[in-house]
Model the fold of this input.
Amino acid sequence: MKRVVTLQDISCVGKCSLTAAIPVLSCLGVEASVIPTALLSTHTAFESFIAYDLSDKIGEISAQLIENNIRFDAIYTGYLGSIKQIEEISAFIDRFRHGDCLVVVDPAMADDGMLYSGLPDDFVDHIHPLISKADVIIPNLTEACMLLDMDYSEPSGFSMREISEMLARLSNMGPEKVVITGIHFDECSMGAVSYDRATDKVYTAENTKHNGRYLGTGDIFSSVVTGCLLEDQTIAEASKHAVDFVNRCIEETEKAQDKRWYGVNFESCLGELCKTGMAFNKSESEE
Ligand code: PXL
Done:
């Protein structure tokens, strides 16, 4: 079984980052190890919250992991709450990366054209060195624009040609594979567009368009992509699984009587994800 270490925050209440990544990765048949980068009472979309930055613990924890000869098949980073955290995570990658280790960076810092609350305005400048270390990056459209220093208009404001150019430019920053999420294809369909430098091809993954903003879906998406890549899926296949799973989570959220504004009902869909994970393992054992 492959082992991934994911470096993200944990909220006591709030369905995002680690509380979403762990179940998703487990369902896909991947061992999920964690380095909690911050502890929050709730995620930052709640009216009030407290947050403890754990950046200064990452070095000490790493030393202990090395002492125990622990190796990872992948390092996957999510939402980052401070510039110090980016530096610590970069150092972690330098320490733990080896020939076969996949580095996945979700530069979770912004949405709807705006940086997440509490992040400094120059945050994007500091994230570039982390992007250049990644094999795979998974920005949403807002984050992709920020990384490329482009204006963000609206999700439907970009042609496929422009998106393809953006993917290639992001890949030129280092990552071999890039997925841009939150692309609106037409009135009824949305999803993600991915690029693989190895094939020099662009792939689209579409499903039903939902109106409204669903918190934590980016974290769920990146966790599905990471799990699928570790199960030897291509970036096109991984993105399609992620688009479909997020779509199912939103469908279940919309159906729910006790709809929770702060995250999607991914729990109702984990059974389906486990079936996807089991199918990967079945085809592996048949090989
Ligand atoms: O889903 C991204 C995310 C992760 N972690 C925390 C957040 C957010 C988005 O608001 O606040 C703490």
